[in-house]
Specification:
single chain
């Protein structure tokens, strides 16, 4: 995991301090993860994926697949779009191919 965090810093051309600021965590948290002292929490990973929407969750969590989400999705025929809704709701719209048929859908989640 620490190597993937270092890869994000390299790919995004960020210092650990700037990365921490963008993601919304303490600089010491990033430093401890990079040094191998600590492992990132689920909350830490979610913050990365929220700020860097182009990073593939599979790559971040497992190290498998491409770095960029769009590259990961293009081979599977799946596209997702996150949109902030009103009243503290998040709407996630999606379209996926199942065989030669496509399916549309959306999910609504309360954030409050």
């Amino acid at each position: 995991m620490q190597e993937r965090i270092k890869e994000i810093l390299s790919q995004e051309r960020l210092s650990p301090a700037r990365f921490a600021e963008l993601v919304g965590v303490q600089r010491s948290s990033v430093s401890h993860i990079i040094s191998g002292r600590n492992k990132p929490s689920l909350d830490f990973l979610q913050k990365i994926l929220t700020h860097f929407e182009h990073i593939s969750p599979d790559w971040l969590i497992t190290g498998k697949g491409p770095y960029k989400r769009s590259e990961a999705l293009s081979g599977q025929g799946i596209a997702t779009t996150k949109q902030s809704g009103t009243d503290g709701k998040i709407v996630i719209s999606f379209f996926c191919f199942i065989g030669q048929r496509g399916r549309k859908g959306s999910l609504q989640c309360n954030t409050k």
